[in-house]
Structure to design on (418 residues):
């Protein structure tokens, strides 16, 4: 079996981490056991390009148990957990092509290795693999019959491709499932982003001013958790509705120009580019910490930071000190890449349980509907979302009320008023 990982000696630690993650992912474990006998993915080859984390390994195990052949690469140069990559190769016989710290060139080489396995289904986080197929592996388009997409930025890119008439196979937008978006992006990103900032800097959040750029799903989670740790939170936005929500949630809202001189810690969570650039960097306080949790490393202008600096040095892992010509020092975390995965471990297993249950069920959906779906971005069905929510509640031991017949009738009735 061909593979490329950093160090096979890490495999035992990786296996322990995967097992720990699995013990916290009851929905995915339930699905793995449910489909283990039936093998609905027998004969299906899957090419995956998602962060190589212990939770992803649990997803891969479930796909393999259901009968799929799987090959995998990471979707970010800094997010691969090398122990997990080694364990996937050694204990689960998965051809993995990923290690932490690969170059851009190596990153695409790894994706190419996955594509050489000639997948029937692709699984992406950010759409790099799908776009690679469309641009460089056109002959594969005859074989691939569907794909899934894990994150907001990937869904945006794929919707743009579909609008341009350039998307050549159907995609399920796992990101937009309620049981993904409203949990993973909010609670997962909220907690793990602060985890990344704290692990890399050990900074005290209490009393600090944290500026969160973007009050979408991720930004909301980061703002909520930063406030919970005692920070004063400022939100920047471009969407009036989200800005209004942030205001009513009790945050100060202002343009980045106004926030730049006030913040101690900045977190971008927009999926947009150059949200923090030269004019903002110039105004920042000495000692300011800069981090990003959006998918790509384009939210903080690294070019502007480099140009404003006369020196830079790595003061500890994941912390680059930029000494500006003005005499100030700014600290950039994890090279401006998503700080929760590059400087911590990504989302906790409990929340990835739902995201990856959706990934698993979406792959089943693609197989069951092979040849019947248009080449566009499809939403996860309400039924699938509800199934994941019900299983998750059951595994958490949470019971809920049920509507009586009388209540069901009342809710559909328009005649009974005052
Ligand atoms: N770190 C992670 O593990 C993780 C997890 C999920 C999603 N993501 C990524 O995080 C990013 C945000 O995802 P989301 O689900 O919150 O998206 P979202 O669409 O819910 O929210 C993004 C928000 O940013 C705002 N915004 C856009 N451009 C802006 C700008 N220039 N300045 C200020 N605000 C701006 C938008 O108005 C929107 O409210 C995406 O790149 C997504 O792929 C990362």
């Amino acid at each position: 079996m061909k593979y490329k990982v950093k160090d096979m000696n890490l495999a035992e630690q990786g296996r322990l981490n995967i097992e720990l993650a699995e013990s916290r992912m009851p929905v995915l474990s339930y699905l793995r056991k449910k489909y283990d006998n039936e093998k609905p993915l027998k004969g299906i080859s899957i090419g995956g390009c998602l962060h190589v984390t212990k939770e992803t390994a649990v997803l891969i195990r479930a796909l393999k148990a259901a009968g799929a052949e799987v090959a995998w690469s990471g979707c970010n140069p800094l997010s691969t957990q090398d122990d997990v990559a080694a364990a996937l190769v050694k204990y689960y016989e998965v051809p993995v092509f990923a290690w932490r710290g690969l170059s851009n060139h190596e990153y695409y080489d790894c994706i190419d290795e996955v594509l050489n396995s000639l997948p029937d289904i692709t699984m992406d986080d950010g759409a790099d693999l799908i776009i690679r197929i469309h641009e460089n592996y056109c002959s594969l388009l005859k074989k691939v019959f569907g794909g899934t997409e894990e994150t907001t930025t990937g869904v945006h890119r794929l919707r743009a491709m579909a609008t341009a008439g350039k998307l050549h196979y159907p995609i399920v937008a796992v990101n937009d499932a309620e049981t993904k978006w409203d949990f993973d992006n909010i609670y997962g990103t909220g907690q793990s982003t602060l985890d990344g900032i704290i692990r890399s800097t050990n900074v005290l959040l209490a009393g600090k001013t944290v500026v969160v750029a973007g009050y979408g799903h991720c930004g909301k989670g980061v703002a909520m958790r930063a406030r919970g740790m005692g920070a004063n939170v400022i939100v920047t936005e471009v969407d009036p509705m989200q800005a209004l929500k942030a205001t009513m949630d009790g945050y100060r809202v202002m343009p980045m120009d106004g926030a730049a001189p006030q913040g101690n810690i900045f977190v971008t969570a927009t999926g947009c580019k150059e949200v923090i650039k030269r004019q903002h960097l110039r105004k920042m306080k000495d000692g300011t910490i800069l981090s990003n949790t959006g998918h790509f490393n384009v939210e903080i202008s690294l070019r502007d930071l480099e140009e404003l600096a006369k020196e830079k040095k790595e003061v500890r892992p994941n912390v680059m000190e930029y000494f500006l010509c003005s005499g100030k020092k700014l600290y950039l975390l994890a090279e401006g890449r998503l700080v929760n995965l590059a400087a911590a471990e990504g989302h906790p297993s409990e929340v990835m349980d739902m995201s990856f249950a959706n990934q698993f069920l979406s792959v089943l959906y693609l197989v069951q509907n092979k040849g019947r779906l248009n080449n566009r971005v499809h939403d996860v069905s309400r039924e699938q979302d509800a199934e994941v929510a019900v299983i998750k509640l059951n595994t958490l031991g949470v019971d809920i009320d049920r509507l009586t017949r009388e209540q069901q009738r009342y809710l559909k009735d328009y005649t009974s008023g005052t």
Remarks:
- Residues 11 and 87 are 4 Å apart (CA to CA).
